Amino acid sequence: MSAQAGTVPPDIFGMKLGQRGTWLLVALVVLCAVHVRYPVGVLGDVSYMMVTVGAGIVAMLAARRRPPGERYAWLWIASGVLLAGIGDVIYTVIYWMRDVRPDASVADVLYLASYVALALGLLGILGMHGSGQKLDIDGLIDMSSFAIFSILVISQITNVGEIFADDSISRTVQIVWAAYPVLDAALLAVLVRSIISRKRLGTNGVLISAGIACWLAADFTTLLIADATQYTAWMDVGWMLGAALMGAAVIDRRSDEERDAEVEQASAPRPPVRVGGARVLMSLSPLVVPGAIATWSYFNGHNLNPVPLFIASVVLVLLAFARSTRLVRARDLQEAKLGQSERYYQALADNSADAVIVIDADGKVINSSPHLTEMLGKHGLDTSGIDAIELIEPVERDRFSAALDRMRATNSVVKEIEVLASHTDGSPRWFGMRIVNLAGEPAVKALVVNIHDVTDRKRAEEELTHRAFHDSLTGLANRALFHDRVEHALQRNSRTGADIAVVYLDVDGFKTVNDSRGHESGDLVLREIANRLLSAVRSSDTVARLGGDEFAILIEQTTRPLDEAATIADRVLQAMTAPLHIDDQQIVLSASLGIAVGDSESTASSMLRDADVAMYRAKTTGRAKWTVYDPEMRAAAVDRLELETDLVDALANDQFRLVYQPIIELESERVVGFEALLRWHHPTRGVIEPGTFIPIAEDNGSIVPIGEWVLQEACRTGAAWQKRYPDRFLSMAVNLSTRQIASPDIVEHVQTAIRESGFAAGSLVLEMTETVLVHDAEMAAERLHELRALDVKLAIDDFGTGYSSLSYLRQFPVDILKIDRSFINSITDRNQIPAIVRGLLDLGKTLKLETVAEGIELGVQRDSLRDQACEFGQGFLFARPLSSADADDLLERLASSERLVAIGTER
Ligand code: C2E
Ligand code: CA
Ligand code: CA
User: Fold this and answer.
1) Could you tell which of 674, 680, 694, 703 is best to mutate to test the pocket of ligand 1, judged by most ligand atoms within 8 Å of the CB?
2) Which 3 state secondary structure label does DSSP give 433?
3) Which end of the chain is more exposed for a tag (fewer CB within 10 A), N or C?
4) Burial readout 741-759 (b: 16 or more C-beta within 10 A, e: otherwise)
């Protein structure tokens, strides 16, 4: 029942008593008082029994409510109290009926049983809280010895011998009477044992110990007095209180949390019990007792029966023997275990991939596992006594000894470091070390170092870092690292005043190689370029691959950055000219370079961007050269970017047109054909020349579909004109870019254009520059043969500007040479034709090729060429490129006059 609000329940010895508890306490005090006041008679008897029986019943009820794990023990305690109570009732009833106090009766059986029950209960509680579930044999042996000890002492003190010596009493009574001191002694032993073994006596422990102590005190007093006349009510009070206390002990006052905590504590691992000298002495001390008693009896003149003493001695010796045997066994076991674990750890150390070394205070190795020498490649080396530092690479020694010193100074326990060790094979080995400071451990007093070879992991880490900053294909620095280097160089710059330069390099026509020969060849080319770049720079320069076919060089630590950059750029261009052999075939490479010189405002990004812009200028103004950045280039670069964006949709938006420039037979000045030239009608910028946008279209690959359209459109127009002027056999020339030739689709594009238009294949001329042939001769030859098989004619455009040689030209199935305008330009005097022009015309004749002179603007040029038997010509002198309508008009007019009379205007 819960306490009323406002009334605080009385607190006794830290125990909270409920309302019911308070009433029970009051009843107990009243009943004890009544018993003391009226010890004899009905009132005394009833008050006595009310307490003992009441305590028994309360205990029984309380024990049933105990948690299952401990219920049995508490039921034993409760039944001990209740049995005694019932015994009291039987005793009193017999006394009332016979009016004599019986020597021995059924009540004594219950009394004696109650001792056994209490002992069992105590042992049960011991099991619960003592050394856990496992039977504590040592404890039992100790307890038995102590029990014999107390029995001997108590029976001696209480003169049990005299009971048996008294012939006036029956054997049964003798046994019953003797049983009391014996059981008292046994119960005392159990009580002492349980008090000792329970580290912390809880409330219940205190109550139960006090209860049993009350009983034992009353018992001993009774036994010692052994005289009914001196018997007082105070002894009864001892039994009454004992019963009450034990009854109270059975009541569980713990809260659920407390109980949980206890369970947890009980299940927590306990440290092993130390078997010290005190404990051995305690377990052996009872051996003294028989002799002591004999001595005592001798001096007091008692006539002692030696048989019980002898039996007790024998039993005690046996117990002591058992106890010592177990002690020795336990020690042996522990030693065996220790030895085993020692061997175990030794075996572990010997066989693990790790090595262990022990270092003393002076840094000397005092012990090491054989593995260490193996890890260092120093087989057979005796490491003991050497300085631990000698195992480490010289560069790492300071770091290593600093780590050891710091550990010793700060008394830190564990430290992990990685150091470079010196292996005999000279290759670097990384050792991961776990240093444990065991200076405070008396058995070791040193640093113990566990060594693990982490070289593989270290290498992998280095590899990863390398990869993060290097290009996997060429091994050069990548964009990130290059950027970083430039940034650092600029920072140094601001201090030293020295200047730096960045060279940006883009391989000319690299996409063609990649498209026509596949990526593997492309990779080979890039690797080769990387090698050539490295050979062209100074060792202090950084070469990087920025991505694709773009490279960069950082030139630093120079006082004349521009000159230095120019020198290096020239060397690079020179290095590029050597032909490259891939799959037994020859490729000639070139590159365009841009140079940017740093100033106080430069950043890594701005320098890279400027060099890129300059490179682009080099590329669009002829390739295979270098250009230095100047600010106005940036506007052009921006422009280009815009065009590139617009170009994407130009074809779909029908923004392309073809114009046609007539080709003239110089002798007769008849129009024999046209060259189709591309124009881009930009929505805002107007007409854009091919020189502006074709390089962009080549770069981004859109030249292929655009070129396909040009082929179709040119063939359609050509077919229409052939139909209308059938007797002219007009030819149509179409320009093909390098990128188009490299594309395997070109053959099909040409085929389709012819088929769909119905244009005569023999009238179609495909023009391509020499660079196509030089760049990748093998591929070009193959492609040209395929095209020739379609019956079209092939012309070399801008002839004379490339690397052509006679032997070169022989490889290709070429029909026409178009001599570049620059040569024709140089003709100013009909009587002084430049040798080079004559040479080119001769070459054409030797190879039996038709020759077309490009860019004839002056009459003198026309006349001179006619003198030199150049068959065909084209140029503003005859006609500008014409829209198809104008060209149509021209053809119409020519049908009547035959002679070319007008110079058309391009629209
Ligand atoms: P190209 O093949 O050498 O074409 C001849 C260029 O010379 C044309 O410039 C033409 O207008 C110009 N020209 C002709 N006669 C004279 C002259 O007497 N004096 C001067 N100063 N120039 C003359 P255009 O049309 O600007 O074409 C430039 C280049 O663009 C062409 O050079 C050709 O390489 C390329 N191109 C033009 N159309 C196409 C095309 O459809 N596809 C490809 N891949 N390239 C094309
Ligand atoms: Ca051309
Ligand atoms: Ca040309």
Assistant:
1) 694
2) strand
3) N
4) bbbeebeebbbebbeebeb
Gap between the Cα atoms of 63 and 248, Å rounded: 10
How far is the C-alpha of 184 from the C-alpha of 112, rounded, in Å? 10
Rounded-to-integer distance, Cα 330 and Cα 199, Å? 23
CA distance 692 to 683: 16
- Name the DSSP class of 906: -
- The model's confidence at residue 529, banded by pLDDT at 50, 70 and 90, is very high
What was the pLDDT predicted at 900?
56
pLDDT for 754 beyond 60? yes
Cα gap 342→352, rounded to integer Å: 15
**3-state SS string for 858-902:** CHHHHHHHHHCCCCEEECCCCCCCECHHHHHHHHHHHHHHCCCCC
Structure tokens at 326: 């177990």
**Is 90 exceeded by the pLDDT of residue 719?**
yes
Q: What is the DSSP letter of 554?
A: E
For residues 120-138, average pLDDT: 66
- CB of 798 closer than 6 angstroms to any ligand 1 atom: yes
**CA–CA gap between residue 457 and residue 667 (Å, rounded):** 81
- Ligand 1 binding pocket includes 822 (Cβ within 6 Å): no
CB of 851 within 6 A of ligand 1: the answer is: no
For residue 611 the two structure tokens come to 């060099």
pLDDT at site 730: 95
In the structure, what pLDDT confidence band is assigned to residue 17 with cuts at 50, 70 and 90?
Answer: low
- 687: pLDDT strictly greater than 80: yes
Task: Compute the distance between CA of residue 31 and CA of residue 198 in angstroms, rounded to an integer.
Answer: 33
Long-range pairs for 254-260 at CB < 8 Å and ≥24 separation? 259/67
- Ligand 1 pocket, residue 222 CB under 6 Å: no
Give Rg (Cα) of the chain. Answer: 59
3-state secondary structure of 251: coil
Model confidence over 631-650: pLDDT tens digits? Answer: 888 888 888 889 999 998 99
Task: Write out the H or E segment, with its range, that includes residue 840.
Answer: helix 835-846
Q: Which two tokens stand for residue 192?
A: 């002492």
- Give 707 Cα–ligand 2 centroid separation in angstroms: 13
pLDDT at 260 over 60: yes
Answer yes or no: is pLDDT of 230 > 70. no
Positive or negative torsion for Cα 678, 683, 685, 686? positive
Q: What letters, b where the CB count within 10 A reaches 16 and e where it falls short, cover 583-615?
A: eeeebbbbbbbbbbbbeeebebebbbbbbbbbb
Give the Å distance between the CA of 848 and the centre of ligand 2: 20
User: Tens of pLDDT along 391-437?
Assistant: 888 888 898 888 888 888 877 778 888 888 878 887 888 888 888 88
Amino acid letter for position 129: H
Cβ atoms of 391 and 370 within 8 Å: the answer is no
DSSP assigned state of 395? G
Say which residue the tokens 């710091």 belong to. Answer: 406
- What's the rounded Cα separation, in Å, for the pair 211 and 188? 12
Instruction: Give the tens place of pLDDT for each residue, 84-124.
Output: 999 989 988 888 888 877 778 888 899 999 999 988 888 88
**Residue 567 reports pLDDT greater than 80:** yes
Residues of the chain above pLDDT 90, percent: 33
Residue 485, H or E segment: helix 479-496
Cβ–ligand 1 contact at 876 (below 6 Å): yes
How long, in residues, is the chain? Answer: 907
Nearest-angstrom CA–CA distance, 515 and 772? 14
Q: Which ligand is nearest to the CA of 676?
A: 1
Can you give the pLDDT at residue 5? 42
pLDDT value at residue 905:
45
pLDDT band at 133 (very low <50, low <70, confident <90, very high): very low
Structural tokens at position 1: 């029942």
Which residues are registered as beta bridge partners of 671?
664
